[in-house]
Amino acid sequence: MRLLNYRHDDQLRHGRLDGDEVVELGSGDLTLRIAEYSDSIPRGGRRVPIVDVEILAPLLTPPKVLAAAANYQDHVREGGGEPLDKSRLVPRLFLKPTTSITGPGADVAIPDLTQQLDWEAELAVVIGRGGKDIAGDDALTHVFGYTCANDISARSMDYGFERDASDAVDYFDWLAGKWGDAFAPIGPWISTADEVGDPQRLQITFDLNGDRYQDGSSADMIFTVAELVAHASRLCTLLPGDILLTGTPSGVGLASGRLLRPGDRMTVAISGIGELTNQVV
């Protein structure tokens, strides 16, 4: 099943996709119903042609947005790093603000703080049943579904004055480069876990103005979805509606020198889920 937020007749609603129609499930943000719908999704009511609605981010107010860094070996290598030894690592998780969430078709603005804006096509996990210290073998039972995500990243930060160089400056610039408004487009809908099946068998692609830059597989993750969910739950309590971005395969702009420019059209596509398109302004 595919669930989405949409606007119709100037009202925020959520529903399920059925062919070329949206079946209304209720009013308001889907985020608020994730816990309930983890047990049972209603059949719904009136139908509206999908062409008559504005599709929004499938979760507008997630409790938190977690993201995994350096979770594909080929992405680590393209950035100049050495291959990672999983046996000596834990997942590298960070947070993005909920203000970074935006939906399909929304503009992504290049902020004044950077001239080096980049893309990262990613599989996003939506938590259905919350929990703490979730066992790896049980982790996927806590997953409600999956959606496409683009972890927009500023590769440099310019605050208007010269700063001393240090590892700390580099790290916090990298982290702040993940925080911009609209730096986490997600959508166009959530494909439920039963529809997606094995999350480690998905093709992930990224096209820029119709040209293919990323073409990877979730099979190549260093840490699987289950391992990421379990580890995240050791660090903090996971809540229904939490989003977990799982890392990006190789092919980001920084590696080729082709960074984002106004007018660029970005499309993330994941097999079994759909396509997420946004324009840079």
**How big a fraction of the residues is strand?**
25-35%
CATH C-level name of the largest domain: Alpha Beta
- CATH architecture assignment name of the largest domain: Alpha-Beta Complex
Amino- and carboxy-terminal Cα gap: 33 Å
Globular, elongated, flat, extended or rod-shaped: what is the shape? globular
Main sheet attributes: strand count, strand direction, barrel closure: 12 strands, mixed
Helical fraction: 10-25%
Main structural class: alpha+beta
Low-confidence runs of at least 5 consecutive residues: none
Number of helices: 6
Radius of gyration: 18 Å
Oligomer: single chain
Order of helices and strands: EEEHEEEHEEEEEEEHEHEEHEHEE
| Overall tally of domains | 2
Mean pLDDT: 97
Tell how many strands the DSSP assignment holds. 19
Protein name: 2-keto-4-pentenoate hydratase/2-oxohepta-3-ene-1,7-dioic acid hydratase (Catechol pathway)
Pfam families: FAA_hydrolase, Rv2993c-like_N
GO molecular function, one term: metal ion binding
Keywords: Metal-binding
Task: Summarize this structure briefly.
With 281 residues, the protein is α+β, with helices and mostly antiparallel strands. It contains 6 helices and 19 strands.
State the main characteristics.
6 helices, 5-stranded mixed beta sheet, 12-stranded mixed beta sheet, metal ion binding, Fumarylacetoacetase-like_C, alpha+beta, 281 residues, 2 domains, 19 strands, Fumarylacetoacetate hydrolase, domain 2
Could you characterize the architecture of this molecule?
There is one protein chain. A hairpin with a 2-residue loop joins strand 15 (203-208) and strand 16 (211-217). The longest helix is centred in the C-terminal third of the chain and has 11 residues, at 225-235. It contains six helices and 19 strands. By secondary structure, it is α+β, with helices and mostly antiparallel strands. It has two domains: 1-55, no CATH class; 57-280, Alpha-Beta Complex (Fumarylacetoacetate hydrolase, domain 2), CATH 3.90.850. The strands form three sheets. Strands 1, 2, 3, 4, 5, 6, 7, 8, 11, 12, 14 and 17 form a twelve-stranded mixed beta sheet that branches. The two termini are 33 Å apart.
